[in-house]
Write a structure and sequence with these properties.
The chain is α/β, with parallel strands linked by helices and 335 residues long. It is built from ten helices and ten strands. It has two domains: 135 residues, ATPase, nucleotide binding domain (Nucleotidyltransferase, domain 5), CATH 3.30.420.40; 165 residues, ATPase, nucleotide binding domain (Nucleotidyltransferase, domain 5, 2-Layer Sandwich).
Length: 335
């Protein structure tokens, strides 16, 4: 079964063809990072316009790369929530028109479920397991009970880890998106150079706002004293604390619910420090760790098509009234 996936939740226009939820036939991504970098972050209106300009060509290339026509596609899967509503509307509207024209089923996919499904494209992991989802807008601990059945047991109470990375990077004068620059700088820095706080949050929830503010304060304090901040040391100290927070909560949750399989996914899962910290923690506890390749960590349509396959098998399809939703819990389905 070949599914065409479409993803436009933020600033990547993406389309892909995936067979049986496992095999990537094509995966095309048009990034807007260079454009938004001029503004230091994603500008929603610009993102929507660029999606509208690029989605036809991206989808056509995905079909061409997969050597299939639209008539040979079995279904169309699209990210309908959560994300920038204008950006989502471009993808949803385009997917609905394709499905209607080709008389194919339309499958609504939750963006976070898509990130979780990225591991199905690169490993043999199967539910049940514990998933740590770390991206620009989300930081969640999820009990993956089945391919379409989730329970969120932990979430950020303020900033997501990816958002904290970008804001810390801005303070350190790194370009947007800043996560990759912090990761690189941290490799040559001293993670104990700055004493940064570890927010105390109940249960399996996360908090990164205080940590982000501490980085800002460290930079401003040094500036007022006429001192120079060592970007490598502050980046290393910040990243080390993020890794500590994520691994501690994941370890606690895995033990609490007796999981032996753990997955890491989401855009921030590309961070080498976080990958290393999770590997170390899982190794010490005898957990199996699954992480998708870096190419599947960021927003892409292959993960949407992969999850779309399992949504279709569970009977989750939509009609022409499917709408984009900016904010929606992972456990909620499209209306």
């Amino acid at each position: 079964m070949k599914i065409l996936g479409i993803e436009t939740s933020c600033d990547e226009t993406a389309a892909a063809v995936v067979e049986d939820g496992k095999r990537i036939c094509s995966n095309v991504i048009l990034s807007q990072a260079e454009t938004h970098g001029k503004f230091g972050g994603v500008v929603p209106e610009i993102a929507s316009r660029m999606h509208a300009e690029g989605i036809y060509d991206v989808t056509a290339k995905a079909l061409s790369d997969a050597k299939v026509t639209l008539s040979e596609i079995d279904a169309v899967a699209v990210t309908f929530a959560p994300g920038l509503v204008g950006a989502l509307l471009v993808g949803v509207s385009f997917a609905k028109s394709l499905a209607f024209t080709a008389r194919k089923p339309l499958i609504p996919v939750h963006h976070i479920a898509g990130h979780i499904a990225a591991n199905y494209l690169s490993s043999g992991i199967a539910p049940p397991y514990l998933a740590l989802v770390v991206s620009g807008g989300h930081t969640n601990l999820v009990r993956v009970k089945d391919y379409t059945e989730f329970e969120v047991i932990g979430r950020t109470v303020d900033d997501a880890a990816g958002e904290a990375f970008d804001k810390a990077a801005r303070v350190l004068s790194f370009p947007y998106p800043g996560g990759v620059y912090i990761d690189e700088a941290a490799k040559s820095g001293n993670p104990k150079a700055y004493r940064l706080p570890k927010p105390q949050v109940e249960g399996f929830n996360f908090s990164f706002s205080g940590l982000k503010t501490a980085v800002v304060n460290a930079s401003h304090t040094a500036s007022m004293k006429g001192e120079k901040v060592c970007a490598e040391d502050l980046a290393a100290s910040f990243q080390s604390k993020v890794c500590e927070i994520l691994t501690e909560k994941t370890e606690l949750a895995a033990k609490e619910f007796s999981y032996t399989k753990v997955s890491l996914c989401g855009g921030v899962a590309a961070n080498s420090g976080i990958r290393s910290a999770l590997r170390k923690m899982c190794g010490e506890n005898g957990f199996e760790l699954y992480i998708p390749p870096v190419s599947l960590c960021g927003d892409n349509a292959a993960m949407i098509a992969a999850q779309g396959y399992y949504e279709f098998l569970s009977g989750n399809t939509a009609d022409e009234y499917l709408n984009a939703v900016a904010t929606l819990p992972l456990t909620k389905k499209a209306r």
